[in-house]
Amino acid sequence: MRMLQGMVSLTVVGLAALTLPQTSAHADPVFWTDWLTGTNTGGFTATGTLTTGSATVNVTYNNPQGISFFQNGSGGETDFWTNSSHVRNPARSPYTSSLVSNIPTGTDMIALQFAGNQTLSFSQAIANPVFSYVSLNGNGYAFNQDFDILSFGDGTVRDAGFWGAGTSFKNIVDLGGGNFEYQLLGTGEPHGTIRFTGSFSSVSWRSLSNENWNGFTVGVAGTAAEVFTPEPGSVALFFGAGVAGLSLLKRRRRR
After folding, report:
1. String of b and e for 204-230 (b: at least 16 CB within 10 Å)?
2. Which residue, 42, 50, 56, 194, has most beta carbons within 10 Å?
């Protein structure tokens, strides 16, 4: 019933994740997009906000082909982020994991329908975006950036999603010339969350099939400045260690 397939392009704006200290591997709250408005003039455009610890990031989604429907938590909407029993259970949700502690907020979701290109853009660089999906079905997405599958609702380890249980897996395809694509595939009715590591200013992808419908939302660990900038204490620690090392080196040379 539900099918979505596409090529996704993510714009990387920094390599801070590779060069600065990493946070510990434990479940942290994700700041999910609060979708606000949706306009169907000349395709579909939605706006929303990501409110992090110290910043508000404006999110814009554009799909020239249009969509199936849009939910912004305005009331009376179906909560597709529940399990197949229509219950929110963070301990077993398809969308939570050892790195994500909270289910996507409210009923906010964009449901896709048509093949074609679409883009998410952010008013400032964000860190480690997570992409949660509803009813990926037997098809998938082909990304040009690697990702980690954080969770999916298989009905055993994690509860089934709203439309049932399924699995998700990654398949890496060598396109030649040093180019690869990273496919998110699945069986049954995949509902889950993936994460890209790094700093991003936009996410673009192409849905390869007309299928009514398949939903998504996006969240972040924080802005790039919040996540990838060392805290003053860490900088002082590194600086102190460097000074101590130089002093030790000088003492050794004097002997």
Report:
1. bbebbeebebbbbbbbbbbbbbbbbee
2. 50
